Amino acid sequence: MLDFPIVDTHLHLWNPAYLRYPWLDGIPLLNKPHLLADYRHVCGPIQVEKMVFLQCEVEFSQFMEEAEWVTGLAQEDSRIAGMVPWAPLEKGDAARAALEQLAQNPLVKGIRRIIQFEPDMNFCLRPDFIKGVQALPSYNLSFDICIAHVHLANTIKMVQQCPNVQFILDHIGKPDIKNQVFEPWRREIKALSESPNVWCKISGLVTEADHQNWTKEDLKPYIDHVIECFGFDRVMYGGDWPVASQATEYPRWVETLEWAVNGCSDDELEKLFRKNAISFYRL
What we know:
single chain, TIM Barrel, 3-stranded parallel sheet, alpha/beta, globular
């Protein structure tokens, strides 16, 4: 068990009675309020020092309301030290008004506009989307990349067009862990890691594995590869609660990741579970 408090860089909270989350309609297990009290309970013995809230695919018209709601939650629990809301980056320069408004909130550290759910495989390469992403440094904001492994090739091209943007890849790019597929994910992760402005969040792996039957051995080759590519200076832990609750209890995921990096130095362990998160998200 870790002997220091961790930073959770990937926390979701929602209340479907207050805001609308269309995607929850198809997942009864998750389609109910998941609030701070629930999170405190599921953490069990794991000490969490700070959390970063990630947007939850609220109905797009309510993205400002979601940010305001989380700002209120942070007043209840000061461990919410940052948030990454949604913004309409596909509008290009027309997204700047929303970015300006969001950036006035000191909790807002970056933007996440999910690419994975777009039917157009080339969505992230549309000129206006690229322009929206390129605007982020003007507001001191990073970009969380949320994709499935099939989007990695285009993601590399997007990143190459945005050298001034700080990126973090969520969920190690969602490889097909359930079927133990490694290529071309392995090769493309290596290529993506060669851009020094890209970091990698080790989160969400259990949800890509067999929910009921995964083992830590199933996950380890994927964890090993991203650490080999990004090094301990550009990786960080994420809990991905409550989405990950479909496949794991919270402490089990922390213990699995700690087991996977057994043999690393104390400093490397602190970088993975704490220091890098504070640096990247400016907590």
